[in-house]
Write a structure and sequence with these properties.
Elements: H1 7-23, H2 27-31, H3 71-74, E1 82-86, H4 92-101, E2 106-111, H5 114-127, E3 132-136, E4 149-155, H6 164-174, E5 175-188, H7 194-197, H8 200-204, E6 211-212, H9 213-222, E7 226-235, H10 240-243, H11 249-257, E8 262-270
Helix pairs in contact: 1-5, 6-9
């Protein structure tokens, strides 16, 4: 019998296993590596993550240091909004979103790692939040009905999804007409060395699974979004002691010659008003 275990499924299984390990680790361990994965670095503490400390609603117990931006800071969440966080982890962005959406709002976190869902639910219960929920689910098939969310956020997660076009199509489906998203993600500005491209650890670390920046933006537009804009961009410098796990000294020199090919961007896009998702009945 031939195996039905596709490369995409193998990638998902690898990412799920890695993030199950991360759910059981402390923040310091996670932040010392790329997006909470890969070999530990002795050169820097934070490689990709931004400081959430200044954001209202921040809960340090829910921050595993896995992000590469602050999408909730740019998301324009208003009181009463329904907000969906894709790849919600331990609940960090959900709790910041809840502060913005207020007691009349609703926040739904989606994650495909059971250990993360368990951790997030425990955090929400400890905080006594009644309008935050966490659902086990795949971003390529979000467990929600269409036209439900006012805002979608995601932080350093979509680059881990094998079928990014499907992920953005699902985001489009669950957003209400006129709704919008703000996501932080890792993209490439130049080619990665083959050794990094093929490294499973660097995939789980949000690097070798990343798309070229323009391809990423084109994928968003092809999903139907308009008013697509880059809200923030920053280069990601991977320290030499991490690169040395994959590259020779000469390859490291070549890698640095053209500057870092890895960039964190925060992108916003809107679902056009008057547009309803297929088979939703919203326009009937």
């Amino acid at each position: 019998m031939s195996s039905t275990h596709t490369p995409a499924q193998e990638t998902k299984d690898m990412v799920r296993r890695k993030y199950a390990e991360i759910a059981k680790s402390d923040k310091e361990t996670n932040q010392s590596a790329c997006c909470g994965s890969g070999p530990c670095s002795t050169e820097v503490y934070n490689i990709m993550s931004d400081d959430y400390g200044q954001l209202s609603g921040y809960q340090s117990d829910a921050d595993l240091g896995l992000g590469c931006g602050l999408p909730t800071q740019f998301a324009g969440i208003q009181p009463g909004h329904t907000v969906v966080d894709l790849g919600s982890g331990a609940g960090n962005d959900c709790f910041v979103a809840r502060h913005e959406a207020g007691p009349d709002g609703r926040v739904i976190g989606i994650d495909f790692t059971p250990e993360m869902i368990e951790k997030a639910r425990a955090n929400a219960q400890k905080l006594g939040f009644q309008n935050v929920e966490f659902r086990l689910g795949d971003i390529e098939r979000i467990p929600m009905t269409a036209n439900m969310a006012d805002v979608v956020v995601s932080n350093c997660v979509l680059n881990l999804v094998p079928d990014k076009a499907k992920a953005f199509a699902e985001m489009f489906r669950i957003l209400k007409p006129g709704g919008h998203f703000s996501v932080s993600d890792i993209v490439l500005t130049n080619e990665l060395p083959p050794a990094i491209q093929s490294a499973a650890e660097m995939y789980a670390g949000c690097v070798s699974g990343a798309m070229h920046r323009q391809d990423y933006l084109d994928t968003i537009i092809q999903a139907g979004f308009d008013q697509v804009s880059v809200q923030k961009a920053k280069p990601i410098v991977v320290p030499n002691d991490i690169l040395a796990q994959y590259l020779s000294p000469d390859e490291i020199v070549t890698y640095h010659k053209t500057g870092s090919p890895i960039e964190s961007i925060t992108v916003r896009g809107s679902k056009p008003a008057g547009t309803c998702s297929p088979n939703s009945g919203c326009c009937e």
